[in-house]
Design a protein that fits this description.
With 134 residues, the chain is mainly β. The protein has one helix spanning 2-21, and strands at residues 35-44, 47-54, 57-64, 79-81, 84-86, 94-97, 100-103, 106-109, 119-122, 125-126, 129-130.
Length: 134
């Protein structure tokens, strides 16, 4: 009789826990001002094209490939603190062409729809390696 009572109690408790876990979250998690969701990473011969979102805006980043493999790499689907700068306003070598920029010999287009019409870099990103922000 003790076993039947114990099994019945455990059954009802497990049903209650399952029901609680399936309830949707009522609010979005708050993120820091400079925290971005990495949505897509493309690889081209000399650089990575990285798409990140914050609020309702999508930004296109160019991060030049570097040889460091021993680092913390960004992954699509995760949030990261990024310090963005514009290649248009940077001291970095870039050349404007009719449809975008050349960054270190890599042509990058502005033409993607629904994306902020600028090409960015992250000051704390080298290749796909991220360093801590201050």
């Amino acid at each position: 009789m003790k076993y039947i009572t114990l099994i019945t109690i455990l059954f009802f408790l497990s049903c209650n826990m399952t029901k609680r876990n399936k309830q949707p979250l009522e609010h979005k998690q708050q993120h820091k001002e400079n925290e971005y969701l990495v949505t897509k990473i493309d690889s081209i011969p000399k650089a990575y094209i990285i798409y990140v979102e914050r609020n309702d805006s999508i930004f296109k980043l160019v991060s030049l490939k570097e040889g460091n493999n021993l680092c913390t790499k960004i992954i699509a689907g995760n949030y990261y603190e990024l310090n963005l700068g514009s290649w248009l306003n940077a001291d970095k070598p870039s050349l404007i062409h009719s449809d975008g920029l050349y960054v270190s010999g890599v042509g990058v287009s502005f033409s993607d729809e629904n994306i902020v019409q600028n090409i960015f870099y992250a000051k704390n990103l080298k290749g796909l390696c991220i360093s801590k922000t201050n």
